[in-house]
Amino acid sequence: MKISNAIPQLPSFDLMLTKNFYESLGFSCAALLTEHGIAILERDDIVLHFWKTDSEEQAQEYGKVSSCYLIVEGIDQLYQEFQHNRVTFRYGLQTMPWGMREMQVDDPYGNAIKFGEKLND
């Protein structure tokens, strides 16, 4: 038996706005089921699920405490891609004292999306 993966489920009020934002990060839309209040976005091996909140205020409130950390290979190239696409960063690429090189982007509802790559020992 093995548990092999986790899929973050993040709040969104406007699923189309969320879809467009994540497409600017290089994700593609695997499913947009507005009648069910669900959006699924993918990039490489990463899958993110979004669920529709009852109001924009609720999405903003939940987004303040929602986050995910995505492990990356080639974070310098990803950072350059994001800069080219004019992505706004909460903080740009930094080397952290815990042995990671990481950056953070906040989506339109405040969900914190961190990207990190482990430094070589």
UniProtKB/TrEMBL annotation:
The keyword NADP does not apply. GO terms for biological process: response to antibiotic. InterPro entries: Bleomycin-R (IPR000335), Glyas_Bleomycin-R_OHBP_Dase (IPR029068). Gene3D superfamilies: 2,3-Dihydroxybiphenyl 1,2-Dioxygenase, domain 1 (3.10.180.10). Keywords: Antibiotic resistance. The keyword 4Fe-4S does not apply. This is Bleomycin resistance protein. The lineage of its organism: Bacteria, Pseudomonadati, Bdellovibrionota, Oligoflexia, Oligoflexales.
